[in-house]
Specification:
Number of helices: 21
Low-confidence stretches: 366-372, 614-623
CATH topology of one domain: DHBP synthase
Distance between the termini: 41 Å
Oligomer: single chain
Helix content: 25-40%
CATH class of one domain: Alpha Beta
Radius of gyration: 24 Å
Number of strands: 21
Shape: globular
CATH architecture of one domain: Alpha-Beta Complex
Mean pLDDT: 92
Length: 623
């Protein structure tokens, strides 16, 4: 039984294929087209999943789309009617798009699928539609290691729901309640993303990273004017300040007057004001999420919590849930945004629509000779991999200079290169699914190096200097470095660096504020320690990524440090690399020192001159 899940037409289009309830392959369309957050029909991602499963599209049993477009159209109509005559021009623009295309999505999907399969639409497998938050909930619960859990979905908006609570038990997901549009925590956060000059749907993590540089001075203004939060965490927005329901922007003039200035222009200088706003909205968001999770615990009385939806990528809030909620453990879908809806839609068909049992003991490898799994996501290593022959052929075609080493030699050599302060592009195995690079498409470095954070930001990633980097730490040593005693395999929990590793500040240093804080190393692993002594942690496990784990072990053997800096293998505005060609191009266009592609090691200094295009950074949409 093979089921293909598809998410598309909003942002982060993706495809996922499951077989007998096991995720075989999943990928985002952006990785193939090289267009960040590509929303188009995911034809390349679909073809990849079919290739991985070695079947033609016609042999699928079901195809399922991650949401119901007619319900979204209903919400659109009702919203404009409720706000009329406001938003007339926006309404005309939206109706044009819907009447030309979106209203006929079922027909469009069938045409696109038939084109891929080179067959008539009548020969296609059955096409099903799940609800948006149902897809999120299924992506959170069914791959989790829990037989029973509360499932909280928090995002911008699905068809109507923006926040929903579900009870997951065995193969069932039972909806409990929901908060509907326009009252949305995701859109609330995105409004501040927009107002501080970042791009909605991609800049929210920048706002989160900026928050520790500021003070939450605007909390009272937010609570008094913008949002009414009840004790149980439910909330209502004051729509007089927001424009997204009827306009083409997130906020309006009244919002700007409330905060005393117009929206910051993108790419302009960041001021302490933006940092304080970021700190304020982050604090309010965390309080809402904590109250909602406490309500979920009180109402459902279960020990475990699962999270999905774009807000579940707020790893600072997740860290607080992990530390402060009454749940024994939490599990977060690593592709928590819309891309993960493709997995959830497919799993929802398998478990809910077809009523297949969910045998957690078998799936997790308990009681057998197989290696136990952390969950059903296989470390998110669900994308394409490339053979030594394919890699060698490409490198020879571009006349790259390389050496090829066996595994032991390679790991020893790369650990030594990193310990010398070099930055390494690390490409191996199957590409990660979701927004995080987790050791297969990563740029890595030495966390002990004081300048590593700024070097990576300014010379490798070409992005804002304030952005923090994440540590990859040996799973068994996480408590030696961080205030964390549980796995965080998907870089979705933030925790503090251990007190004994922190470097005390003198009185003069304590007076620094804003970006000036960057100048002061905060710990003995400064490259991954944010200005508030926090870190977004990835625990690395031999069960899911043996090779990356062994590299960190080798680095530990050399240096005594069981941590590496890990950031995604891409530059600003570009998706994470997918192929050896993507990796080599990114390597040559940046100031990375070395590149590893499987067992091929390349030194930048030995490469032939790259045909540079000085405007190459403008080839991608900057965010």
């Amino acid at each position: 039984m093979r089921i293909l899940g598809i998410s598309a037409y909003y942002h982060d289009s993706a495809a996922a294929l499951i077989q007998e309830g096991t995720i075989i392959a999943a990928a985002q369309e952006e990785r193939f087209t090289r267009k960040k957050h590509d929303p188009r029909f995911p034809q390349n991602a679909i073809l990849y999943t079919l290739t991985e499963a070695q079947i033609p599209l016609q042999k699928l049993d079901y195809i399922v789309f991650y949401e119901k477009p007619l319900l979204t159209f209903e919400r659109l109509l009702e919203t404009y009617l409720a706000y009329a005559p406001q938003g007339f021009h926006s309404f005309i623009a939206a109706m044009s798009a819907w009447l030309q295309e979106k209203l006929y999505l079922k027909t469009i999907l069938k045409k696109e699928l038939a084109k891929l399969a080179n067959c008539k639409t009548s020969k296609l497998p059955p096409l099903l539609f799940a609800e948006h938050h149902q897809s999120h909930a299924a992506s959170a619960f069914f791959p989790s290691p829990f037989n029973q859990a509360a499932v909280l979905c928090l995002d911008a908006v699905g068809e109507w729901a923006t926040t929903s609570l579900w009870l997951g038990k065995n193969n069932e997901l039972t909806p409990q309640w929901e908060i509907n549009f326009p009252h949305s925590l995701g859109l609330f956060y995105s409004a501040f993303t927009y107002y501080t000059g970042f791009k909605v749907n991609s800049g929210e993590y920048k706002l989160m990273g900026l928050a520790p540089y500021g003070e939450p001075k605007y909390v009272d203004i937010i609570l008094d004017n913008l949002i009414d939060i009840k004790e149980d965490g439910t909330f209502r927005l004051n729509m007089k300040y927001f424009n997204y329901a009827v306009g083409l922007t997130m906020t309006n003039e009244k919002f700007s007057r409330l905060f005393g200035a117009p929206r910051r222009q993108p790419e302009s200088e960041l001021t302490q004001r933006e940092m304080n706003i970021a700190a304020s909205v982050q604090k309010v968001t965390e309080e809402i999420v904590l109250k909602l999770t406490n309500t979920a615990y009180q109402e459902l009385g279960v020990d475990h919590l699962c999270l999905a939806g774009g807000v579940a990528l707020n790893c600072v809030a997740n860290g607080r849930i992990s530390r402060e909620s009454k749940f024994k453990d939490i599990w977060i879908q690593p592709a928590a945004g819309d891309a993960g809806g493709a997995i959830g839609a497919a799993l929802g068909v398998w478990y809910q629509y077809l009523d297949n049992p969910r045998n957690l003991e078998v799936r997790m490898g308990v009681g057998s000779d197989s290696i136990p799994k952390l969950d059903g996501m296989q470390g998110t290593y669900l994308g394409p991999k490339f053979s030594a022959k394919e890699i060698g052929q490409y490198l020879n075609d571009v006349q790259a200079k390389y050496i090829r080493l066996d595994e032991t030699q390679l790991l020893s050599k790369v650990a030594e290169i990193i310990a010398q302060g070099n930055v390494v592009g690390w490409f191996q195995g199957r590409m990660e699914f979701g927004p995080r690079a987790l050791g297969n498409r990563s740029i890595i470095g030495d966390p002990r190096h004081e300048k590593m954070q700024s070097v990576m930001n300014l010379k490798i990633k070409y992005r804002e200097s304030f952005r923090p980097f994440a540590p990859s730490v040996l799973a068994e040593r996480v408590s030696d470095y961080f205030e964390l005693d549980k796995p965080s395999p998907y870089m979705l929990l933030v925790a503090s660096v251990k007190e004994e590793l922190r470097l005390p500040m003198n009185d003069e240093q304590k007076q620094l504020f804003g970006i000036e804080k960057l100048k002061i190393p905060r710990s003995k692993i400064p490259a991954i320690t944010h200005v508030d002594y926090s870190a977004r942690i990835q625990t690395v496990h031999p069960e899911t990524n043996s090779r990356y784990y062994q590299l960190i072990k080798e680095f530990e053997r050399l240096t005594g440090c069981g941590v590496l800096v890990n950031t995604s293998f891409n530059v600003r505005g570009e998706p994470i690399v997918c192929s050896p060609e993507d990796a080599y191009r990114c390597f040559m266009r940046t100031e990375m020192d070395y590149l590893v592609i499987e067992n091929y090691l390349l030194a930048k200094a030995k490469q032939p001159q790259w045909q540079k295009n000085d405007s190459w950074k403008n080839e991608f949409e900057l965010d």
